[in-house]
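Title: Prediction job returns without error message
Component: structure pipeline
Severity: low
Priority: P3
Assignee: unassigned

Description:
Job completed but the reporter wants confirmation the result is attached to the right record. Sequence as submitted:
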Amino acid sequence: MSVRVWLGLVLGGASAVLLTPAVEVRAEVESTEPVMIKDINPSSSGSSSPAEFRALGDLVLFIAFDPQHGRELWVIDGDETRLVTDIFPGTESAISQSGAYLIPVGDAVFFRADDGSNGPELWKSDGTAAGTVMVKDINPSGDGNPLYMTAVGGTVYFSADDGSNGQELWGMNPGYLAGAFVPLTPSRILDTRGADPVGELDGSGDAYVLQVTGVGGVPSSGVTAVALNVTVVDGQANDFGGYVTVFPCGTRPDASNLNFVSGQTVPNSVIAPLSADGEVCLYVYGVADVLVDVSGYFVSGFVPLTPDRILDTRGSDPVGELDGSGDAYVLQVTGVGGVPASATAVALNVTVVDGEANDFGGFVTVFPCGTRPDASNLNFVGGQTVPNSVIAPLSSSGTVCFYVYGVADLLVDVSGYVTSGFTPQVPDRILDTRGSDPVGELDGSGDAYTLQVTGSSVPASATAVALNVTVVDGQANDFGGFVTVFPCGTRPDASNLNFVGGQTVPNSVIAPLSSSGTVCLYVYGQADLLVDVSGHL
């Protein structure tokens, strides 16, 4: 006897869902008699054997078989019953006849599946193809074999084998950091090229108002701040140079997020507070096209502040010495600009003004005082004005130190502080391709560089990391080059930093991690890459 999906009663004039082992379902059935919703396996002797029906919001997820895809995850979404995604491509089954478990927790179901490459491992799905991913490759050398899953409160418990300890007790709480930072695959939410650029040369132009909530994966409510990458393209400026200020609309602060001169293309990352309407404003002193990519959002754990300048050394002595022998500048951060003593890290924008450097170039390292790490937050050559954003861990006394190899005036603006969810660390260099092959090809045909991030100073439980990525001696065609940092898989249409031939350019990135704890770095053009990690979520 074949099993199809049947369902449906109307009780008291309201439609109801009857979930039984022998049904093919739909969320709304307008019939007082049982009806077949979909013949998933229409062959004359075949059966789709649908099972393990689970409600997830307005969706119903279940397991079913068809000859083209094998046994896979399906979803009933309003009037549509469809395959979510072919986890094990082809006719092989990703999910066994029994033991898929399908445990709903929060906004996803967790289950056991085999994609044909990693063996049976822990997966989750929100009912969409993009939201169906392996949670973790528990046993990278074999089968993680998650079994006997159940959920208590927000925690999923199960048995699994990591290849070292045998089948043991495992668990995870998907919502543990849901109140902190939620990483997103980068998405471009503004590109003014092809329309009017933003700003006026004399600074009299209006700020550009950009709706952020409800766009690019950012929820329409409950968001306090977003992680953005903002790029000025072909900036035009007077002799004093131009700059961009990103702020939560309202009164524009006396602060800047990136600086440029005529002809420059300059990126910088920004943790941007949102207005009550979910907007940010972008003021340009000068004229420029602007690109904005969003890579995540905060709902708590990060307290946004209207940007406030807490250091400006212009008019006093610059910081550093050309030979690198200068002392680090110690800056008190807590108790200033709205930052309380309880803060563990702060979001800063650091700008080098009129840097002086030897032939090797100069750099700035921002660190929580104490021992200076072998890492950099921004790089410059003589005469340059260069910004970069930093999530800076604080010392026990609430200070940060700025070491300058070279000589420069420094501007420092604070835009928020971290209270929970983010674990700051002394910056650590985890990639330096100098001395080996550079990454990328001039025509963009090069492979992305896969970088293992978890496993050293970053734990396997991390979902995202704060990185500083630097292009060294970039080579590019006439259109320029760029770098995209993403959680491997499909490369998004977004960039984290832009460069032209000969440039050394830094930018900070809050980078989502893949299920195996990696990030991928794609270079359009060719460059050596430096990557420093300063914390994780």
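Comment from assignee: result matches the submitted record. The radius of gyration is 26 Å.
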